[in-house]
Amino acid sequence: MAEFKSVTIKKGNHGWGGPLTVKPDKEKKYVISVTGGGIDPVAQKIADLTGAEVVDAFKNPVPKEQTFAAVIDCGGTARSGVYPKMGIPTINTIAITPAGPLAKFIKDSIFVSGVTADDIEGNTGNSAEAVPEDASRKPEESFQTRETSQSDQQRGTTNADPTLEREFSSQEKTNGKSQNANKENFFMRMIDAVGSVAGDFVNTFYQAGRDTIDTLIKNVLPFMAFVATLVGIINYSGIGKILANILSPLAGNIIGLVVLSLICALPFLSPILGPAGVIAAVVGTLIGQQIATGIVPVQLALPALFAIDSQVGADFIPVGLTLGEAQPETISSGAPAILFSRLITAPIAVLIAYAVSFLL
Amino acid sequence: MQVLTDIATGFIGLFNAGGKVFLSYMTGIIPLLIALITAINALVKFIGEGRVNNAMSKLTKFAILRYTLLPILAVFFFTNPMCYTAGRFLPEKYKPAYYDSCVSFLHPVTGLFPHANSAELFVFLGIANGFVKAGGQQAKLALLYALTGIVVIFIRGLVTERLSLYFFKRNGNTSILDGSLDINSLKKNDAQEA
């Protein structure tokens, strides 16, 4: 059998993370290309230099246990987090920085972005054998440490500094035990119990607040800035009137909405329209503008919500099914089933929403 | 000079208009989002992942639960994109249909529970903002969006289930069609992972 070589992948222009050193072995022998529209040149070059096999994950899904690297082109946050979470070194051809709900798994030891074929170098020596395994273990470890630090925090007081708090609470724990053993002071133990419950409560809410602000800054505000600028330009420049002429035959009546839903559900279009809901959000905002000005009837808001969304998740099928621990055969049969199902269910959804919209 | 000044005024006006829209989002949408998402985040932490997993593993037998309650729980508690992991409670043949119904609920849920998919709020908000400006009640739209969404994901689950069974048959994946799932072994795996 062929001998595998390791390659080093550096971040590209404006990229983040890395450098990663990956090397296939007998079990992990595939580099997967999760890029849509064939095999990405980056994946091809990694395969060429390592002597491994490259696979288009949309056409031939392989189990994650046999994958030593994943090449993705994810401008959003989902795919960029999913593969690092599964412990697979991830190479993103689009320059992004860690964000989204899985940001904590996106570490520079397992993720590199903005990569082009020029950023990949073959290593001549066999010095870096153990690196990919190390890298694949790291995110789980760091996740665990995060977990423990969280629970420590919950046991501790409401101090703001997590490191101080951890030391403090571990000291407290040992001290507390010996004291409890020495004095059987019921009253003190009561206070202890109440304090720890209250501390738990406060800290859980505090962490929840921290998570909220985190997601607000990383996910919500950037999109809000984008939409607000877009809406401002459309309103101020008068493009809105032109768009209204284009959109009103589609969005202004129920038949147009059914047609719109069918267009979004076309099996060759839907995976392109899907990513991160951006297209749906932009079209939704445009239709919302028309509803506000009265060109599109208010009642059509509900069916419109379904008409613009018939492509939802069509780009994410292989990844989503992998997260559900589906076998490769399930993915290859399930993907067309989902895409064709949309052609049937999308117009039905719009019509149901139309019927319900009389309640608005 | 007058022409140049006009052009400059128009240029700044474009972004002034954008800034005003942004400010209206900040004062209109963000305060509610912060309080709501914080409360739900805390609730999810209090209930805990283990209990939700336990409840979900019992919902797999009947189609009506499989394509309504299971995706709803998964989306509410695990949010996008970890909600798809609940697919592991299902036999292989139902996984594509579960994915389809789960992903189709990711936008209907955002009207009432924005924490579940906070990165993609504007699919709902874009239309809802216009709806409110035209005199509608956002809460009513959000509620009907979620309720209609539940009906739609159920139908979508059933249709995709039929279609994927057809594709399994056509591609000769009989092992998937026959395979059932031993939930007990899954629970063991979960315990080991924990």
From TrEMBL, chain A:
Taxonomic source organism: Lacticaseibacillus zeae DSM 20178 = KCTC 3804
A cellular component annotation (GO) from this entry: plasma membrane
Region (Disordered): 117-179
Record keywords: Membrane, Transmembrane, Transmembrane helix
Ranges annotated as biased composition (Basic and acidic residues): 134-144
Pfam families (UniProt xref): EIIBC-GUT_C, EIIBC-GUT_N
Biased composition (Polar residues): 145-161
GO biological process: phosphoenolpyruvate-dependent sugar phosphotransferase system
Name this protein carries in UniProt: PTS system glucitol sorbitol-specific transporter subunit IIBC
Membrane-crossing segments per the record: 220-238, 250-269, 337-359
GO terms assigned for molecular function: protein-N(PI)-phosphohistidine-sugar phosphotransferase activity
Domain PTS EIIB type-5: 3-221
Modified residues (Phosphocysteine): C74
From TrEMBL, chain B:
One Pfam entry name: EII-GUT
Keyword Iron-sulfur set for record: no
One GO term (biological process): phosphoenolpyruvate-dependent sugar phosphotransferase system
Entry superkingdom: Bacteria
Keywords of the record: Membrane, Transmembrane, Transmembrane helix
GO cellular component: a single term: membrane
Record field: transmembrane: 22-44, 64-87, 141-159
NCBIfam families per the UniProt record, alphabetical: EII-GUT
Protein's name in the database: PTS system glucitol sorbitol-specific transporter subunit IIC
